[in-house]
Amino acid sequence: MLKQRIITALILAPIMIGGIFFLPLQEFMYFIGFIVAVGAWEWANLSGVSNQAGRLGYVGAVIVALFAIAQLDAAHARWLLWAALAWWIFAFVLVRSYPKGKQAWGGVVPRLVMGLIILLPMWVGFVQIKAYPASGELIMYVMLLVWGADVGAYFAGRQFGKRKLAKNVSPGKSWEGVYGGLATTALIAVASAFYLEYQYALFSMDLEKWITLLAVTAVVVMVSVLGDLIESMVKRHRGIKDSSNLLPGHGGVMDRIDSMTAAVPVFALALSQLNWTILL
Questions:
Q1: DSSP string of 70-114, one letter each residue
Q2: 186 in a domain, yes or no?
Q3: What's the pLDDT tens digit per position in 53-67?
């Protein structure tokens, strides 16, 4: 299993990094759109749509929605980021109350709608970040936050984990793991700020910028945990372990992007509201 995970990661990482840094905006939109389409294929199954025609129909609906969103200007598309923020606040309530309340969202249609709220804003977030200067560094930053949070949570949870984070949804996760993830990503934030300050030399990080950076980082990391927990909740309701077996050793695409679906739109929204003064 570990060998499979490493081989898959070694194949996927260069593809993802190449897409982030070298694809122009238009091609990048299609690149992320393809990832979203695969995620939609898997989410249809998580929603209870097991037949191929139904899953293809859901993918088609998501693609049509992406093309419609692409016609909007950035300001109007940004409303989807606000909708995502509202959704992830509500998602906290769903996770905390599970298994109570599953009658409201456990049906096929509510879960399909949930998938739209989860997948579409992630695409908008990626595309809007890509439009910024130094977009490659910014996208890598939010991805490093997600990966760093996962790694920090894994080791801190194994070593110190006692208090369950959401025992009915994901019994293996602990609050100590969350704290380990926050500590790890704080180090990533500090290192990234020093790197960007050196690389672009546009200003010195003063106290206000440090506080803003660390606060945004903490919010993004905490909401990324919700992304993971929501998919775990839906998988538990569906009675499956992985969203698919497309990625040997890793499960499915949704299993790899679940945290990103929450982190990316919230990070993109933070950048827009801070007028791009947080890092550059």
A1: HTS-HHHHHHHHHHHHHHHHHHHHHHHHTTTTHHHH-SHHHHHHH
A2: yes
A3: 999 999 999 999 999
